[in-house]
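Lecture notes, structural biology module. Today: joint structure prediction for complexes of two components.
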Amino acid sequence: MNWGVTFARPKFVTKFNVAQHRGVRLARVNASGSEVANSYQWEAPKTTIDVSAEYRFTKKFALYIGARNLSRTPKRSSTYGPGVPDYATLRVVQHYGSLYTFGVKGEF
Amino acid sequence: MNTSSNPRTTVVRRALRLGSAIVLACFAAFAGLAQTAGTGVIEGRVVNSSSGNYLANARVTVDGTTLEAATNDKGEYVLPPLPAGEYRVTARFLGLERQSAAVAVSPGQIAKLDFDLALRGEQTRDGDVVKLDQFTVVERELTAQAMALQAQRAASNIKNVVEFEEFADMGEGNPGEMLKYLPGMSFTFGPSSPGAASIRGMPPNGTVVMIDGMDVAAPGDRTFGFSDLSTGNIARIEVTKSPTPDLPANAIGGTVNIIGKSGFGSTKPRFTYNVFGTLTSLEPLEQTRFTLNKQPGPEARADARPIQPGVDLSYIFPVNKSLAFTFNVSRSTRFFEMDYFSPTWNRVTLVQTAVAFRPVTQSFERTRYSATADWRVNRKNALRLTLQRSNEDAVTTQSIATVSFGAGATGGPTFTQGAPTGVGSASQSFDGSNIYRDTDNAFLRYTYDGETWKTSQAFHRAT
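The predicted structure, tokenised, for the full assembly:
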């Protein structure tokens, strides 16, 4: 579920967005000496927060800043199988951090 | 003067002439069928007077009849043929004040009627019209949302539309930043940098990405990277999850159709610029170093400044009513760090057999160019040429520390015990790669847009 709040005035716009991703079952994992039958790869649920703000001095000049994934939510991937306890499911945790942007823009 | 010719060339020319004649005859027949004697046509354009942009999907109706037409991407409409007489025509667009005008239709003539729609200053409540003294709205956000809603309302099936002027910050110009909020869409790579799109949980290579309705090149496994695009030359993006028969059959997840800006979309030349910096940080905001100093990487070529610059320029140039151009160039560089932690479990014996830590640094340089030329040959026939090129140069380095607990290890939820014979190992390795990617797309589209019939033919070359 995604939701957000926008506050807009003629010269100023700010946005706060939350993206809530549910867990996604991915590819099936072949049974082997280390994987039980009927196992699947799984991407864990995650919530990311984005914020941005812009101040428009004129149509020709505006300043903006933004932050993506302000909560620095990592991506967690697991492998689930029948009878496999939670502690043994984790496959990889990827930390990407936050992305900050700032700049000027306009139109002539 | 040389009058001799190659027989094979002559045959090809004759075939082309014959084909052209058949096509033209068909269109002429369609046009003839569409317009009967004693009727005339009303046509014109609908413009947003607040922004100066022509409006797509505006509804134009003839009052007192069921006749209506929708405007195309150039804001143009053509109403079905009408018997000669006086008519009142109304143009509507979400969020904008409707406008009506009287027009006289003469037999065999084309009556021109253009509309300038302004932002709505009136609101209705319980059927009454309430006139507000001062009603200030934010033009860009309101009209962009209205344009997206209008496109969704006019769609032949369920479609999500993102209008790019709706968003305040463009950041590094990756359109995935806007698409990731759409229901059912998720992006691979990372939460702070959208890469390939997955629709309804299907793998990203099951998502067909199109530009102006044509498939675009996706190197490798057909997975399209949204970082190859620049928002500067995009008007809107349409996401369709349930393909209609006119969409590619291999779009098992859905389709993403990127609609480029049209040179005819604006009443006057427009130049837009966006100059920006980006910074990626693994640290919390309060500990993030906003520095321009170079930070050392695992090797010299991976050294980079955390804050990297970018620029996105676009120009729309409607020369006249028949010819228009758009140009866009963008360049961005970016440096970012990632940390990977990956334990390896034997999920049969429930013993952890290895663990790896992998700090990764990556620096990107992306340059994107695009240009379009629109030529309206006449009222019904139009040609569009689109050229796009993107280059990406990515340097990735990673230092991998791995501990393997060896054969015969035992363990449980919180520990691993190596075998008595001591066969475990610890290793450190370094990995570096440099990926250079060029993508070129060229489209030539012919469109016939008549009162009754509409057809579009396109040639596309992607490398």
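Point to remember: The two ends of chain B are 40 Å apart (CA to CA).
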